[in-house]
């Protein structure tokens, strides 16, 4: 960052060596405070007062600068209770989130005219105060309830704010210019009132208007200063026009007289920031820190910009934008309009530049330049980053003081002229950066240096530290002076009572270190009475060491007081002659000795760059040459300064200090300050009449010459005719206006000639229709214009205007002026929306009175047409029309503001390209809309920018869609607004809609071109001033489809009529018929008759024509079809003449008999069904008996299976001792619980925003996080979303999970919200059926409950239930894998789910394969390692790979194992070599349309074979587990694609059309299979599986439902909460409470976990394992219900398996609920403490910003509905929740709001 300061004037300082006797080290004034941080420093404007003011964090200090920086007063300004999200006044009621906040000083300025100190802090939205300069404790102005425009400074300590107080010019009021960085929607630059109410506010136009996103530009201001008639701002911001969007430095300028920023121009600089001095701009630049800059050094540079060159660059930019469309030939667009303002550079007349140098309302603004102003660095450093700069200029020698980040002050000489020299480095405060407020006092003798907690006052020249010539030369300080003084012996006496030392700048010290020896000369005096004393003149030798040699034309001279004598050089000095006796001072009587000071003036006044008068560097201007005391003269033609008396050619301007007779040869060194100018004056220019001629200055001698016909203004010596001493009578050309109200007050402009020479000439002599008209002096123009204000006429009258000039004649106007009394009679319409925009017609008489612009845009004598403005309330409003200073009120009638129209739905969402389809727009208050329109905007699909913000009342035009886009060219060519077909080409038109009722508007779609098919379509409904986006009110995005095509009825010969048989349907063929239209929208006609459309498909239209052919006199009826704007004529229709056949009687009898038979059959079926129902109950009991017998018969078998399983599980348990249970970490667990089915959850993603906007968006998201802390806002937000029709159940679950993540760090608050929402849910279901509550996830609170339980029970899962569940999962997987599993159908021999039971008897045997471990899994040794693994010979190759991976990598979690598709199975068969095995290859068995997957049996792999899992080639590496990968590296290659071939593994699937392709098919797709009769052998398998797993199921249920260990606190807390809710709502039914608890814990949490072990473990699941778990989960759910499940013969076998166990499990559940009820209640404090600990433990596991960003997308989608809900709530209004949401929208999306 750059820092800078400036001096106000250029000082001349001439240095002459002197000798001083003593010097000593000194300490400098200092003020320090360690309890704060200094931030700003200013000085009192009066140097005699010397007060210093320091602004600091939470403090203000007033120091005495003349008394060692002594602390005079201190004022505490913070900390205060504040929040960035709250508007002042900040109270606990309206800002509950307020906290103690430090008040950083953002602005510290002095108003020198009012003698006031202006202070602005970072709290209370950056409001300011005025304080007394004499006492900072005396607050002169402060506001407790500021308005929006009174927020001055940035409310963020890290965001910059600069200011500048500008004094009055020509009587204007004092104002303050402010530049502030982005924190909200406040303008970056504005002009603030300091002397008018409201203080510190700005007018709407007194600001830099930014139409784009403020956050994208991200201004960082450095300084502001004024020069001449301009104000300058220096800042750096993001250049959004460039592709890199890097930050660039800019200098901006605006005229002081420009109150509307019409003259604003900014140009880029090559670096960042600046300070200023005189005519040059000194800038300190630092390297840009970015991802590509890894330079660890703090590199900085010093650059110099001439301010005149900056002004020329800005003027050039303005001129290009005014008159050349901003373009330069060969360079393209150089000047342009910035900040996305809808304007462009113009091609105005050339005289615009002179007429409007500071712009006007018709000139383009704000302007910017693409061409930067460049400057090379004159000095750079890498030691530390420069942080401050101050500059002093003395006699063309500039000294820059540079502060850096390490607390060092660098003194740099001559930076302006490029000859830079660092002559001193002083450490102010080690490792403490020097503040940018580096100030020189008004005298330039001292500099104030401020660090974080120290202020020091140091002299600019520290001469006291150098005592000799060598020390002086080594210091090389430009400020050093060495004094030479001559004196007589014994006694010193200063000449004229003061020092006579001259000053010489430091560069002379390079060549000269003079030392003048002390000497004394005694003049002998001979006294005589009455005779003056005489002195004998003689030479005096002066010894001067180091005296340099003189150049040509140079010499020395000696001064004896005021007498100068020439000096001649000697070997060791100079020799001077004594003056004449007449030049000596008078000698008193009796004195014998007179002492006089002799002073040797070394006339080598040249610096390092100037050696003579001819130096072009020093004397580029004339004034410095001729004003020197050394007799230099100026040659105009050669443009040089010379010591010669006359120039070789041209005019010589002689030195003003010496006579022309003197010839001096002294060198000249003074700098030039101004140019000598010559004035040429033409009397005739601009003086076309006598009065103007006589106003010319008398020195120009202009006179009015000639007769009446040929008079003109000429120079008096040029007048050959008569000189007129009096002017002719005034002539009035026209009046404006020509009417006004009888009350007067109309400002009338009288234009003409000879209307006086000054306003006093026509004062009190102007009348209009005989009524005096008061002249307005400030608007008077000499001779040509009089502006006056009419007085009251008392009645209606007309007459001429008259002007009498003092000393002249009387002039009358040709036009007449009428005093009129306008009358209002009626208005239409009498109501309209409060948003405004309605066209209003006011009728009456004589309404065209006064200036039309003062009344309305469209005015006639009988009516006025205008547009209503918005109102902040509904109701009745009076009608008032102002005619200048008069008003007229409409009596008896009022205008009624109604609620704004609102659109809720719009459908359909498609249209053909030809348009004309009616869009039904539904809503409220639609009948107040006068001109509803529909607008369609087409944009290219690739470059369409993100949807722009919209205001609450939809005031933004669709053009805002293009804002912020970098590629303007192609976008402008592509993007267009679609017109009506009736509009001429190139016009921007809209389709007009029709108001059907207060709730319905019908809008025909406009026709578009074919490009709409590939374009992005945006549709807006324009309801007067309100705009609605179709995407927010429609169910889906609007799109255009291809036009339909209809073929003629008689396709063979369209010229022939189509013969229609009466009673039949007409069928029309075509294409794309139903893409964008419904059948009821199609209109078909045969002549005048309607053909009713019955069916509309993609290719056919069926319509029923009239029964009789419509009568046509001349020809056959034409068949026409209208589809929107399309009209199809499909040929003529001819009805056949034969009579329509009747329905035969025999057929009618047959139909009756058939109906009777059908009724009899139905009756028989009913009777049979009743008999079957009774039989079903008997069968059920029989089945139960059979199951018991079967269970007994397989018990022994189960014992054996269980024993084998336990052996396997013991082996697995031993493995777990080393590797442990593969629990997921909390982040993965939360991700799978919160966002199931999402490919990339917000917990894994980074914030997806451009890097340039990241900081702004993150700030907005932090504000959103703070807003979510408002309980009222959060509940309103959730309830508002839930009532939206488009807010689907999936959206509800997603939003709930996003809220869970966003509030994860505040689980106590999250729980409080959950309780509030649960109470609302209970109230909702109590009115319906309370037993249904929490049964499904249909609301946000239900998903919130699931997430809350998941968070609170994560530890319980890991520590208690996790082990039992994992053992059950492993047991299921082991048992299933023991038997065959069909890879295609997913059916298994061993399962609990009868739908997944493999019924066929498949022969198989177990094989033990020796697996060669891959490199990644091997121990690292050189010896090959093999591991035995068990598989089945009927397994497919993919199944074999899965089992091998499972057994060889059993100590590694699933996510750490190689992917199955990344490995090949290689059979190493000894001599046969290595063979790659695959599921499909050329050896696969194909039978008809069936292909069998390859198994180990197919390849005849023996028991004990050696196999290896080898990596697959990268080019074949696919991660789609649904693909069966073919083998490579063997002759058995793929067949390629075979159309129609179906795969099978163990059994062929049924012949259904849609079957799963492999074993990973969806359970949901297969769950619909009906239960079939199961033979006993299959029941034996199910019971065997059930008995084997029984112990593991029991262990899991016991772990979940046991109360022997402490019940999780969350379960107890929530069950108590449900009991309280039941008690509160008078629910006493224990079954209802039991259902609530079951739905909240087992259903919402445990069932979810049981069905998805991958939610808690890092394991691989499969469909056949999931099928078993689903049966166990259903059993658990059945156990938690109270109702008895009635089982019958057709009941699922899954339920029958555990029919005997469920009663036992139910007892466990009831006991579990009862024990929880009897335990001690959990207090809120205990729960909050536990939740706080959870928040701390898992704080680093969740990414809140991404969740907040996703959450904002829903806020954005339902933005208007949320804002409306907040505005309708009075409490929300008091808390300003809507305003805070608008601030967030402005930050995150730059949504335009009503802030």
From TrEMBL:
A Pfam family recorded for this sequence: PSI_Plexin-B
Transmembrane segments: 1149-1169
Major localisation: membrane
Keyword Magnesium: no
Topology class, membrane: Single-pass type I membrane protein
Signal peptide: 1-23
CDD domains per UniProt: IPT_plexin_repeat1, RasGAP_plexin_B1
Residue stretches of biased makeup (Basic and acidic residues): 954-969
Molecular function, one GO term: semaphorin receptor activity
Domain of life of the source: Eukaryota
Domain Sema: 10-460
InterPro entries: Ig-like_fold, Ig_E-set, IPT_dom, Plexin, Plexin_cytoplasmic_RasGAP_dom, Plexin_RBD, PSI, PSI_Plexin-B
UniProt-annotated stretches for the region Disordered: 936-969
GO BP terms, alphabetized: axon extension; axon guidance; negative regulation of cell adhesion; positive regulation of axonogenesis; regulation of cell migration; regulation of cell shape
Location(s) in or outside the cell: Cell membrane
Keywords: Cell membrane, Coiled coil, Disulfide bond, Glycoprotein, Membrane, Phosphoprotein, Receptor, Repeat, Signal, Transmembrane, Transmembrane helix
Annotated SMART domains: IPT (SM00429), PSI (SM00423), Sema (SM00630)
Coiled coil (residue ranges): none
Gene Ontology CC annotations of this record: plasma membrane; semaphorin receptor complex
Function: Receptor for SEMA4D. Plays a role in GABAergic synapse development. Mediates SEMA4A- and SEMA4D-dependent inhibitory synapse development. Plays a role in RHOA activation and subsequent changes of the actin cytoskeleton. Plays a role in axon guidance, invasive growth and cell migration.
Protein family according to the UniProt entry: Belongs to the plexin family.
Annotated protein name in UniProt: Plexin-B1
Lineage: Eukaryota, Metazoa, Chordata, Craniata, Vertebrata
């Amino acid at each position: 960052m750059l820092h800078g300061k400036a001096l106000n004037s250029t000082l001349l300082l001439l240095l002459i060596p002197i000798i001083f006797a003593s010097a000593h080290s000194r300490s400098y004034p200092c003020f320090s405070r360690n309890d704060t941080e200094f931030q700003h420093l200013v000085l009192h404007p009066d140097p005699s007062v010397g007060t210093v003011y320091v602004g600091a964090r939470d403090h203000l200090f007033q120091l005495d600068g003349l008394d060692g920086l002594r602390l005079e007063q201190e004022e505490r300004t913070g900390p205060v209770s504040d929040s960035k999200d709250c508007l002042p006044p900040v109270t606990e009621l309206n800002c509950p989130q307020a906290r103690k906040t430090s008040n950083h000083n953002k602005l510290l300025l002095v108003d020198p005219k009012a003698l006031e100190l202006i202070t602005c802090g970072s709290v209370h939205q950056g409001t300011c105060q005025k304080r007394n300069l004499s006492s900072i404790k005396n607050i002169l102005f402060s506001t407790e309830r500021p308005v929006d425009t009174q927020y001055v400074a940035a409310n963020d300590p890290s965001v910059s704010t600069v200011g500048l107080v500008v004094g009055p010019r020509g009587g204007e009021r004092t104002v303050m210019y402010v530049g502030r960085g982005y924190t909200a929607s406040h303008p970056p630059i504005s002009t603030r009132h300091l002397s008018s109410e409201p203080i510190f506010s700005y007018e709407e136009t007194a600001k830099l208007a930014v139409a784009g996103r403020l956050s994208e530009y991200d201004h960082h201001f450095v300084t502001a200063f004024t020069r001449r008639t301009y104000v300058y701002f220096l800042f750096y911001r993001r250049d959004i026009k460039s592709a890199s969007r890097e930050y660039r430095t800019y200098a901006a300028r605006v005229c002081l007289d420009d109150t509307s920023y019409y003259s604003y121009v900014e140009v880029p600089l090559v670096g960042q920031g600046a300070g200023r001095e005189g005519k040059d701009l000194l800038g300190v630049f630092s390297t840009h820190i970015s991802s590509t800059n890894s330079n660890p050094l703090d590199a900085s540079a010093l650059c110099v910009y001439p301010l005149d060159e900056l002004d020329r660059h800005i003027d050039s930019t303005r001129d290009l934008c005014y008159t050349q469309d901003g373009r330069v030939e060969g360079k393209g667009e150089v000047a342009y309009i910035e900040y996305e303002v809808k304007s462009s550079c113009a091609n105005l007349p050339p005289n615009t530049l002179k007429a409007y140098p500071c712009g006007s309302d018709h000139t383009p603004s704000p302007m910017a330049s693409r061409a930067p102003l460049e400057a090379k660095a004159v000095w750079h450093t890498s030691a530390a980053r420069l942080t401050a700069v101050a500059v002093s200029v003395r006699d063309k020698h500039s000294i820059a003081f540079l502060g850096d980040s390490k607390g060092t002050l660098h003194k740099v000489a001559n930076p302006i002229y490029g000859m830079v020299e660092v002559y001193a480095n002083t450490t102010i405060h080690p490792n403490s950066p020097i503040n940018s407020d580096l100030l020189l006092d008004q005298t330039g003798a001292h500099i104030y240096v401020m660090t974080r907690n120290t202020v020091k006052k140091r002299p600019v020249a520290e001469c006291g530290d150098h005592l000799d010539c060598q020390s002086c030369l080594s210091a090389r300080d430009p400020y050093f002076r060495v004094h030479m003084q001559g004196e007589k012996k014994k006694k010193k006496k200063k000449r004229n009572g003061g020092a006579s030392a001259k000053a010489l700048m430091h560069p002379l010290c390079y060549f000269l270190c003079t030392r003048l020896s002390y000497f004394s000369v005694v003049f002998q005096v001979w006294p005589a009475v009455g005779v003056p004393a005489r002195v004998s003149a003689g030479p005096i030798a002066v010894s001067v060491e180091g005296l340099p040699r003189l150049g040509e034309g140079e010499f020395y001279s000696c001064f004896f007081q005021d007498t100068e004598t020439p000096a001649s050089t000697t070997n060791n000095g100079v020799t001077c002659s004594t003056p004449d006796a007449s030049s000596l001072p008078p000698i008193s009587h009796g004195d014998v000795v007179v002492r006089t000071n002799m002073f040797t003036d070394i006339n080598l006044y040249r610096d390092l760059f100037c050696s003579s008068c001819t130096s072009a560097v020093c004397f580029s201007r004339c004034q410095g040459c001729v004003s020197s005391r050394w007799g230099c003269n100026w040659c105009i033609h050669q443009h040089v300064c010379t010591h010669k008396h006359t120039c070789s050619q041209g005019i010589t301007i002689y030195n003003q200090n010496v006579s022309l007779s003197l010839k001096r040869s002294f060198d000249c060194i003074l700098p030039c300050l101004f140019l000598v100018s010559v004035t040429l004056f033409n009397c005739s220019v601009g003086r076309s009449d006598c009065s103007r001629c006589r106003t010319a200055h008398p020195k120009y001698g202009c006179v009015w010459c000639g007769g009446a016909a040929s008079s003109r203004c000429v120079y008096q010596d040029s007048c050959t005719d008569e000189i007129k001493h009096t002017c002719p009578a005034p002539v009035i050309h026209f009046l404006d206006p020509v009417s006004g109200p009888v009350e007067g007050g109309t400002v009338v402009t009288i234009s003409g000639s000879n209307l006086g020479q000054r306003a006093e000439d026509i004062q009190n002599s102007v009348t209009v229709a005989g009524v005096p008209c008061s002249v307005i002096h400030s608007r008077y123009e000499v001779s040509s214009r009089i502006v006056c204000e009419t007085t009251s006429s008392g009645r209606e009258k007309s007459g001429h205007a008259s002007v009498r000039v003092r000393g002249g004649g009387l002039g009358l106007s040709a036009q007449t002026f009428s005093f009129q009394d306008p009358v209002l009679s009626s208005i239409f319409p009498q109501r309209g929306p409060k948003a405004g925009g309605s066209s209003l017609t006011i009728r009456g008489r004589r309404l065209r009175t006064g200036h039309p612009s003062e009344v309305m845009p469209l005015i006639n004598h009988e009516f006025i047409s205008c547009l209503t403005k918005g109102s902040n309330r509904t109701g009745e409003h009076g009608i008032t029309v102002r005619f200048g200073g008069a008003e007229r009120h409409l009596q008896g009638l009022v205008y009624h503001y109604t609620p704004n129209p609102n659109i809720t739905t719009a459908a359909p969402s498609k249209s053909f390209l030809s348009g004309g389809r009616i869009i039904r727009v539904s809503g409220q208050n639609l009948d107040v809309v006068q001109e509803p329109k529909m607008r369609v905007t087409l944009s290219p699909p690739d470059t369409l920018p993100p949807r722009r913000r919209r205001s609450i009342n939809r005031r933004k035009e669709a053009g805002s869609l293009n804002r912020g886009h970098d590629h303007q060219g192609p976008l402008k060519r592509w993007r267009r607004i679609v017109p009506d077909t009736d509009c001429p080409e190139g016009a921007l038109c809209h389709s007009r809609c029709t108001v059907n009722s207060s709730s319905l508007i019908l809008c025909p779609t406009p026709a578009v071109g074919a490009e709409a098919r590939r374009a992005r379509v945006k549709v807006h409904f324009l309801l007067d001033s309100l705009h609605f986006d179709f995407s927010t009110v429609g169910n889906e995005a609007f799109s255009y489809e291809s036009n339909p095509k209809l073929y003629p009825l008689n396709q063979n010969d369209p010229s022939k009529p189509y013969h229609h048989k009466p009673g039949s349907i007409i069928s029309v063929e075509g294409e794309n018929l139903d893409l964008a239209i419904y059948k009821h929208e199609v209109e078909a006609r045969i002549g005048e008759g309607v053909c009713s459309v019955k069916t509309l498909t993609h290719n056919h239209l069926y319509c029923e024509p009239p029964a009789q052919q419509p009568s046509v006199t001349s020809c056959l009826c034409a068949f026409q079809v209208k589809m929107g704007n399309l009209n199809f004529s499909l040929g003529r229709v001819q009805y056949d003449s034969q009579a329509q056949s009747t329905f035969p009687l025999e057929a009618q009898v047959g139909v009756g008999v058939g109906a009777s038979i059908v009724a009899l059959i139905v009756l028989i079926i009913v009777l049979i069904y009743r008999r079957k129902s009774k039989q079903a109950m008997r069968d059920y009991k029989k089945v139960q008996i059979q199951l018991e017998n079967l269970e007994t018969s397989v018990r022994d078998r189960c014992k054996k299976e269980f024993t084998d399983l336990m052996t396997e599980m013991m082996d697995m348990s031993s493995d777990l001792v080393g590797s442990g249970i593969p629990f997921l970490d909390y982040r993965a667990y939360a991700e799978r619980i919160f966002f199931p089915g999402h490919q990339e959850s917000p917990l894994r993603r980074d914030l997806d925003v451009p890097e340039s906007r990241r900081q702004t968006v993150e700030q907005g998201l932090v504000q959103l996080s703070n807003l979510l802390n408002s309980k009222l806002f959060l509940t309103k937000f959730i309830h508002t979303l839930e009532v939206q029709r488009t807010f689907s159940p999936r959206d509800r679950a997603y939003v709930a999970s996003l809220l869970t993540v966003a509030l994860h760090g505040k689980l106590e608050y999250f729980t409080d919200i959950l309780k509030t929402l649960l109470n609302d849910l209970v109230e909702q279901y109590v009115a319906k059926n309370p037993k249904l509550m929490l049964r499904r996830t249909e609301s946000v609170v239900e998903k919130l409950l699931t997430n809350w339980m998941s968070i609170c029970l994560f530890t319980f899962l890991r520590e208690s239930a996790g082990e039992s569940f994992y053992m059950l999962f492993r047991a299921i997987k082991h048992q299933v894998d023991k038997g065959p599993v069909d890879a295609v159908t997913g059916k298994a021999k061993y399962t609990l789910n009868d739908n997944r039971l493999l019924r066929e008897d498949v022969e198989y045997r177990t094989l033990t394969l020796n697996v060669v471990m891959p490199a990644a899994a091997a121990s690292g040794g050189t010896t090959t390692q093999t591991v035995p693994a068990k598989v089945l010979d009927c397994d497919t190759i993919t199944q074999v790979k899965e089992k091998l991976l499972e057994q060889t990598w059993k100590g590694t979690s699933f996510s750490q194992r190689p992917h199955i598709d990344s490995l090949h199975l290689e059979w190493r068969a000894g001599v046969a070599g290595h063979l790659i095995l695959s599921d499909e290859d050329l050896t696969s068995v194909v039978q008809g349309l069936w292909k069998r997957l390859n198994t180990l049996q197919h390849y005849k792999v023996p028991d004990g074979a050696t196999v290896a899992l080898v990596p697959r080639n990268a080019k074949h590496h696919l991660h789609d587990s649904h693909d069966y990968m073919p083998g490579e590296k063997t002759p058995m290659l793929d067949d390629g694609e075979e159309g129609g071939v179906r795969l099978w593994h163990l059994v062929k699937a049924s012949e259904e059309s849609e079957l799963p392709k492999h074993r990973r098919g969806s359970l949901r797709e297969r769950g619909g299979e009906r239960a079939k009769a199961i033979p006993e052998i299959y029941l034996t398998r199910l019971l065997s599986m059930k008995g084997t797993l029984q112990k593991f199921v029991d262990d899991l249920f016991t772990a979940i439902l046991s109360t022997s260990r402490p019940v999780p606190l969350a379960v107890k807390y929530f069950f108590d909460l449900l009991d309280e809710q039941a008690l509160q709502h008078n629910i006493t039914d224990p079954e209802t409470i039991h259902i609530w608890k079951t739905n909240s814990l087992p259903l919402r949490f445990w069932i979810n976990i049981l069905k998805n072990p991958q939610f808690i473990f890092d394991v691989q699941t499969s469909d056949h394992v999931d099928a078993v778990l689903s049966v166990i989960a259903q059993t658990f759910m059945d156990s938690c219900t109270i109702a008895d499940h009635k089982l019958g013969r057709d009941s699922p076998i899954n339920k029958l398996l555990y029919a005997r166990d469920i009663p036992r499990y139910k007892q466990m559940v009831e006991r579990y609920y009862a024990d929880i009820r009897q335990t001690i209640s959990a207090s809120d404090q205990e729960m909050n403490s536990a939740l706080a600990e959870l928040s701390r433990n898992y704080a680093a596991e969740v990414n809140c910003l991404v969740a907040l960003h996703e959450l904002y997308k829903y806020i954005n989608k339902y933005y208007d509905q949320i804002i409306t809900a907040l505005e309708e709530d009075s409490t929300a209004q008091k808390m300003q929740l809507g305003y805070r949401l608008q601030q967030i929208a402005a930050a995150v999306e730059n949504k335009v709001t009503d802030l």
